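Support request, please re-run this one:
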Amino acid sequence: MLNPSCQVLLVEDNDDDYLIVRDLLADVTTTHFDLEWASSYQIARESLLDNKYDACLLDYRLGESNGIDLLQEFGHDGTPFILLTGNEDFEVDVAAAKAGIADYLVKGHINAPLLERSIRYAIERKKAESALLHSQQFAQATVDALSSCVAVVDQEGTIIAVNAAWRSAAKDNNYTGENAGIGANYLHVCEESNDEGKAVADGIRAVIAGARENFSLEYPCHSPTQLAWFRVGITRFSGAGPAHVVVAHEDITSHKLATHALRASEERFQSIVASVPGMVYQFSVNTNGDTEWAFISQGCREIFGLAPEFLRSNPSWLLDCIHPDEVDSFKRTLTKSSEELTPWHWEGRQLLKSEKPRWIQCMARPHRSPSGATVWNGLITDITALKDAEEERDRFFTMSLDILAIAGFDGYWKRLNPAFSETLGYSVEEMMSVPFTKSVHPDDLIKVEEVMKELGEGKSVVGFINRHRTKAGEWRWLEWQAIAELDQGLIYAAGRDVTERRKAESMLLEMQDGLEKRVTERTKELATLNETLRIDNIQHQLTMGTLRQVADAYRQAKEDADVANVAKSEFLSRMSHELRTPLNAILGFGQILEMYSSGQEEQKAVTQILNSGWHLLNLVDEVLNISRIEAGHLELSLEPVALSEVVSESCAMVLPLAEQYNLIFRENAKKFARMFVMADRQRLKQVVINLLSNAIKYNAEGGLIEMLCRETPEGAIRIGVRDTGVGLSSEDQQKLFMPFERLGAAYSKIEGTGLGLVLSQGLIKAMGGEIIVESEVGKGSIFWMELPRAESPLETTLASSSPFDITGSTLAGRTYTVVSIEDNESNVRLLETIFSHRSDLTLYSAMEGVSGLEMVRSHHPDIVLLDLNLPGISGADVLAQIRASEDTASIPVIVISADATAGQVERLMQMGATHYLTKPLNVVQFLQTLNETLQIANQEGNAPAEAVKNEVPRLAPIDGDSLAILVVEDNHLNQKVISHQLQTLGHHITIVDNGNAAIKATQREDFDLILMDCHLPGMDGYDTTREIRRLEQNQGKFPIPIIALTATNSDEDRKLCLMAGMNDYMPKPVRRADVVNILARWAHN
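Re-run finished. Output below.
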């Protein structure tokens, strides 16, 4: 729009023409023209130097000069020029256009409207040119403000423009001449450098040719002292005209070294630099209230979906896009920023025709222009995602099932979620209107004050539990985690209602007490039963008058005793099952509580529950072991055992405990050298450790413990454990081997079951010996273990064998590898001696089952020599796992055991043993068996052993580590325990409660593993397993591994499970570690 008053300079040397122009301008009514006349070239030049005009009417001919000269001198100072000439002249027109003339009028053809339009057009065009120049300068300033080195390259690769960062980088890198700036061919510069430079040159050509829209490349630029990375970005200019590309080099070292959040921020920054995301703008409000958008970046297309040209031509477009509810805040904040010249920050919603309202953020810094206009340079960004995230956060706060709260150090709640209100029954307003200690139990207030003090010191609080009164008057236990923001004076807390958990813990403790009472009652019943049987037998014998009657009575008594023993065994088995079933629930849920307990006091309580439960379980196992010994059902592997090994290993295990009590410990290793006894190695070690543990527990601090060894006149060996404790009276010695008799328990804090010595005596007697006690009150005790003497297996074998017996005949062709799994060092040395004479055999030895299995899997030997009585997993379990793996199933296994019973030999051969040799070893027979086995294996290429006829189940994990497992269990609590343990390990669980349902499930679905309870209603676990195996065989299915899961725990039960077709055995209570190990074992197979 033209100003109400317009300053016009007329440069005209003809008076008549001046009057014509003056009159024409006077006829214009829309605008008042202040006309100033310069009658010569020189006067006009002085006027233009001293004054500013809105327009200049310039005569072409000015004496000896012409208007073109004046135009060339002053045409770029912002004043538009209109050329007046007497005749139409094409050459004059062209020259004037080149010099920047705004319009061209011919005298004699000018009227007032034409002259007014020409002046108005010239003024508006000049304003547009000024705005464009200002916009270009702003754009250049923006590019110069970028830290990236930016250059514009034409289609030939020549640099036509660079920014300040580019010039600075060229100077810093000592580039001078044409390579440093405008005019250099950047393609040649790149091609003369390294491979990255050649790639950049190819990228520029591809963008110029239109083969791709853009190109980018990251490249290192390290110095000897600093690592640095750069990224070059190449973008093609859009629009008509010659093809130009922008080349930008950016330092991205911080991107490489910063965190993910910083990298994301840098990516956004790079996006702003490369493609100007968001909308950079310059906006002004003139003193008359008119608005103008001097510059709008291309980011407006992304934010508003509109082109910059459209927005610049519609100054009020932003206000039109704003949601009606946001208009007032927009105007208010903008007015305040204009009046106070403070940074403007506004957030609000915008309305788009095709989309839901989106949130935008406007940020800008204002300044005053010389004309008095307020100018803002700023950025508009889309913050819809941020607002959505805030809305989701608030929704999470509101919908959370846990209690979420914000409190102040002034003692009042600041914000509460509905879960808190639902837990206590108060409304949010009611709770926020009173101090938060109002609902706390009086006994917990001191603890609350202590927690507030910790939070005030900047500490976090985890697992704090207190009681709160509900609106109904009930007390609820709440567990809290909290952290304070001291700068804000706020406490952020999360809590949950643990009232039911506290009740469950109390119930578990009550159940534990009840179980201990039941054990005591059942034990007393057992003692009463034994005494009744003893009295009945005596009475029967006394009343018999004749030898026949005595014999009949004896037979009857024996039958009665057998019946009583069977009843006793059944009673103990039932007791074990009845106790282990609830123990499984107690220990199972106890372990679950241990996993999720956070409070220190709560953790202590759970630990006490678990310790007491395991103690009770050990008590049950010891009672069962004593029963097995009494019934003669305990399996032993008697062989020559080196006392030096057993004593050394046992002392090493208890030595840390002795040092804890500052006891003097004498092992006397030399006394046991070359001493051998006939015993079960593991059971003997168990007894020695038990006696040493007692010597430590019942010794005085600083006392002595000493190992003794002597031979008896009868040729037996006595192993003694001497202590300097309080000693035992003769009366107490009579009670030593009575079950549950703990001498001094009433006045001693020493823990125990009273079954350790009973079990030890039973084990020693089962091995053909006895325990003898020597003790004196006040001086101490000696516990002697007397066992039959034995000879060294190595010496016996060497003495009875010729050199050829030991050497045997070697096998030609190659060297064979043998793995021996044997825990008796004397037997290991015997094998090493035998193999030292065989150059065709290489021996590897393992002392226990797990390491032996790993050795078999890693070496894949030609033959395995396997002892059965191993620490950890038994030899039978090792054999089962060797046969269960495709990699090791074909390896021959020779069992070497001291157990020569026919049932044991038959069982191991059915499990897949190639041969079964008994100890003491017959070297000739051993070597003959070894050679025959190796020859057969060599001929058959390690074919599977003849005894292994059926396919062995193998476990195939699904979905990586997840298994499909069928749990067959009728006890509801046990179902919960085992399912929780399996599900936390990431497995898929199906639960059924009887055998028929289990059979139907296996026909309906494919499972990787079955956990089978043996005691089920109706069809028990044994019959269920047999039926599943029958169906698998008839249908040609691969057998599913079945693991026995039962509350009984004996060798007899294990045999029953294996004979029924199960593959492994896991007694209750089930430890989580047992579950992990058994799954890992079968997953490996």
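Confidence is low (pLDDT under 50) at residues 802-806, 942-960. The longest strand covers residues 358-368.
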